[in-house]
Amino acid sequence: MSKTIYEQMTDKIMMTGSKIIPELFQMIADQTEAELLMAMPGTPEQLAGKTGKPVSEVDTMCRTLYKKGLAFKTYKGETVGYKMCRDMIQFHDATILWPEATTAYLDLWQKFMEEEWPQFARLAEKFFPKPFTRVIPVQKSIETGKQQILDADSVDKIIETAEAIAVTKCTCRVIAHKCDKPKEICLQVNNAARYTIDRGSGREISKQEALKLLREAEEKGLVHVTMNKAHVGHFICNCCSCCCQALPLVIAQGIKICDPSRFQADIDPAKCNFCGTCKERCYFNAIEAIEENGSAYMRVLAEKCLGCGLCHVTCPEEAIALVETRPADFIPA
């Protein structure tokens, strides 16, 4: 039995076997649009030749698919071409931020995340040598001068060296509705920011505004997550433990789809007053209460700590620091 064009599109983004992804494609692209997407990549002129449609019609359709988040622009000099979304992550993030996405469409994405995504995440864990994303520590938890601080370890450095910055809504919280954490708080940097601004799926902000949003994220208990590369990445997501596509699977099932930072929390028992604030703040169940020899203090479970630093932010005794536990080459070049 031959596959529908929507199943072929699902194969193209490496999601073969999904029952829901073809439905999502069908909800957002009609048959003609689907055929054009499958003919990509190409310029409108090239795609017109492939499909037999007038260039003006193809150009209009390409612009529409770009706005929907199904197609992405490519550039060769001043020539603009289009390519279909590369993978499930691009499909997810781009189309959820389409302003005209319906409630039914967003709800179907959440159904996919709950019913199908965990199994695909397990396959990704086995297939890829390193996770696509990693945790990056809160800025104030790293004491400069005492440890080797890379640009890739610093959310502030990523922002300070950025050429363009935009803020978007968190696509995970837009569809999941499981908490009241801020939605418009995920940052796009450089090319990702330019894409966001051009498409209208977010808004341009200043470096000062971006730094303020990072501090707000830390106060609200959101974990900074970025691209798992040594160079400055395209985004800084600010993730919760319930809506995020990665962290709940890391926490509940131990699926390694997000690397820890190069750092790990360390609690000084002499300073700890056993208030338990750090334990409450830790998403990863990496802090335990210890009572021995008449003393009571909190202790970090090294194997569970992802080095986000959220525990440090609200420690009233400043008893927590992040210590470097992984070498610089832990982050892929």
Question: Would you mind describing this structure in some detail?
Answer:
The protein is an alpha+beta fold and 333 residues long. The protein folds into two domains: 5-115, Winged helix-like DNA-binding domain superfamily/Winged helix DNA-binding domain (Arc Repressor Mutant, subunit A, Orthogonal Bundle); 133-330, Alpha-Beta Plaits, CATH 3.30.70.20. The protein is 39% helix and 19% strand. The chain has 15 helices and 13 strands. Strands 6-4-5-8-7-3-9 form a seven-stranded mixed sheet. α1 (5-12) runs parallel beside α3.
Low-confidence stretches: none
Main pleated-sheet profile: 7 strands, mixed
Indicate the CATH class of the largest domain: Alpha Beta
Q: How would you classify the helix and strand content by structural class?
A: alpha+beta
Rg (CA only):
22 Å
The N- and C-terminal alpha carbons lie at a distance of 44 Å
Q: Overall 3D geometry?
A: elongated
In total, the number of domains comes to: 2
Strand content range: 15-25%
Averaged pLDDT: 94
- Annotation, overall tally of beta strands: 13
CATH topology of the largest domain: Alpha-Beta Plaits
H/E series, N to C? HHHHHEEHHHEHEHEHEHEEHEEHEEHE
Proper CATH architecture of the largest domain:
2-Layer Sandwich
Alpha plus pi helix count = 15
